[in-house]
Amino acid sequence: MQELIVQSSVRNAARAITSFLYCANPGYLHVLEGDHQAVAQLQARLSQDARHADMVTIMDETSTTRLFPGLNMGSAYLTSAALARLAGYLDPQYRSVLLPTSCNSQEVIMDLLHEFVAEQSLSIRPC
């Protein structure tokens, strides 16, 4: 896994993409940030890779700030419970139930991811 992360970091740096991969058994949460076209091309390439089966895009929006500036490919293990908690809030199927229509979903999701990153940073160990 470490070799893959190093290779991805080099590729992402060349495309000005920052990202963080949360690893949990049995799933992953991968946050990609950068120019829309560069991220779309990376997503298209990842979707062709058999290791990325059942890939779902949770949010595809423009933001003026990055969650992981300077991290071309960070990674950390999560407990399944932590990933399930975050994924439950981010699942597009439930987003309308969890967020009032007056809320800016991008702001809420970014705030939630910031909170989650801060919580998890205490126990980060690379994948």
From TrEMBL:
Limits of the BLUF domain: 1-74
InterPro entries: Acylphosphatase-like_dom_sf, BLUF_domain
GO molecular function, one term: FAD binding
SUPFAM superfamilies noted in UniProt: Acylphosphatase/BLUF domain-like
Name this protein carries in UniProt: BLUF domain-containing protein
